Amino acid sequence: MYYSPCHAGCTSINHTEPSTGKQVYSGCGCVVGNVSWGEEGSALTGKCSSSCHHMPVFLSLFFVTICFTFLSSIPAVTATLRCVPDSQRSFGLGIQWIVVRALGSVPGPIAFGSVIDISCILWQDQCGDQGSCYIYHNSAMSQYTLAAGIIFKLLGTIFFLVASILYQPPPESPQSSCETTDQGTEHMSDLPIKDLPDDGVIVNVHARL
């Protein structure tokens, strides 16, 4: 793949394909032709066509990966709530999301961006400075992205296993105010109730009129 016909060493336009409307260049010195038949190198405008024969397999595996990724979010929150005392649950959730953002959301795009940049073939040159990427190596990008995803998933699995091994249940927290109130109500129900007068009216004798 070349940036332009001049970069490929093409000298003339051979013809234009009527079906696609793309121009075919001939006499391209940088493109290797059939030497035995004495053919010159030819080039066609546009990018090289790429086809993915394993797209159904990829979509199936991608769906399973996304499902397991989001299925682990609720058990992680539940584990956090069970590992801290009742009075520190909100504090524990806050620390958990700080760690998630600091170690996942912030460096994640940077890591995958560097992986994508490695697979770039042709960079834009803006007055000596590197600009955007014109062309990526698709197979290399897929391999690098898959390798990075597998490494991060393995690290997450290892951390979950270490957390499950080192888990120690917290000490029993004191009873909450709701439980205390309920128990107080139960004790009050055991107290004897004085007989009410026949008319059902209770009068405070110490109250002033």
TrEMBL record:
- Which SUPFAM superfamilies does this entry report, sorted A to Z? MFS general substrate transporter
Instruction: Name its cellular compartments.
Output: Membrane
Transmembrane stretches in the record are 57-78, 98-123, 144-167
Q: List keywords of the entry alphabetically.
A: Disulfide bond, Membrane, Transmembrane, Transmembrane helix
Translocase in keyword set: no
InterPro entries in the record, alphabetically? MFS_trans_sf (IPR036259), OATP (IPR004156)
Fetch the PANTHER family from UniProt: ORGANIC ANION TRANSPORTER (PTHR11388), SOLUTE CARRIER ORGANIC ANION TRANSPORTER FAMILY MEMBER 4A1 (PTHR11388:SF100)
- Which protein are we looking at? Solute carrier organic anion transporter family member 4A1
